[in-house]
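Here is the promised in-class demo. Please do not try to memorize the tokens; focus on the logic of going from shape to residues.
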């Protein structure tokens, strides 16, 4: 069974828990997991789908700590990379001021 959460990666899946969906799956099964959801962006994907909204840039504080704690094993990045193919390099180098926000027009480059 596949479950897709529309939450941001930092939001807990259940009230009263700090774990997101990937964290819960790993905790319950011990299997490797990958998290996803607005990595580097300030809005969730569904606001783009339902309202055509873009997304601003946010820092990803805490992400590496969560990986180091073993909450999840990998991180998927979608819209941030779609608009800025050098996103990962810029993040690695701490070049936050060079990141490009996601716009609805960026999705049109896929067609």
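The designed amino acids, position by position:
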């Amino acid at each position: 069974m596949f479950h897709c959460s529309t939450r941001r990666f930092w939001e807990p899946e259940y009230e009263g828990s700090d774990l997101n969906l990937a964290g819960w799956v790993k905790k319950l099964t011990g299997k490797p997991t990958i998290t996803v959801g607005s990595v580097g962006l300030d809005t969730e994907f569904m606001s783009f789908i339902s309202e055509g909204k873009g997304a601003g840039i946010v820092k990803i504080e805490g992400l590496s700590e969560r990986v180091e704690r073993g909450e999840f094993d990998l991180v998927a990045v979608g819209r941030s990379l779609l608009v800025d193919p050098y996103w990962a390099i810029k993040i690695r180098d701490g070049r936050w001021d060079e990141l490009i926000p996601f716009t609805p027009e960026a999705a049109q480059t896929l067609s």
